[in-house]
Design goal:
Length: 107
């Protein structure tokens, strides 16, 4: 089975040399990856020992719980579109609601 990459900080970070873009990627990635870590959907810590985002951090499908995979299918694309329309990266409330719905539907 192929272990698909679900999120790649280095790929996103390298797409532009624009410093505002790079800052946006760091903010968005930090919020998303910390949410996944805090909810127990990934085991590895996306932050280094200084609390900064690891710029080589990649999330593979095998790194995720089944809830995490479902979140990437359903809620994370909508959350990223919301950010594109001016939403704040640290507002992960819609991800939490979606996660709760996923968990509830499995009971």
């Amino acid at each position: 089975m192929v272990d698909l990459t679900k999120y790649s900080v280095p790929l996103l970070y390298s797409r532009s040399k624009n410093l505002d873009y790079k800052k946006s990627i760091i903010e968005t990635s930090t919020s998303l990856l910390l949410f996944l870590k805090q909810q127990g959907m990934i085991a590895d810590d996306p932050l280094d020992e200084y609390g900064a985002l690891k710029l080589d951090f990649i999330v593979k499908e095998s790194d995720l719980t089944s809830e995490g995979i479902e979140l990437f299918k359903k809620a994370i694309p909508a959350w990223l579109r919301k950010l594109d329309r001016g939403g704040k990266p640290d507002d992960t409330s819609s991800l939490l609601v979606a996660l709760e719905e996923i968990i509830k539907s499995r009971k």
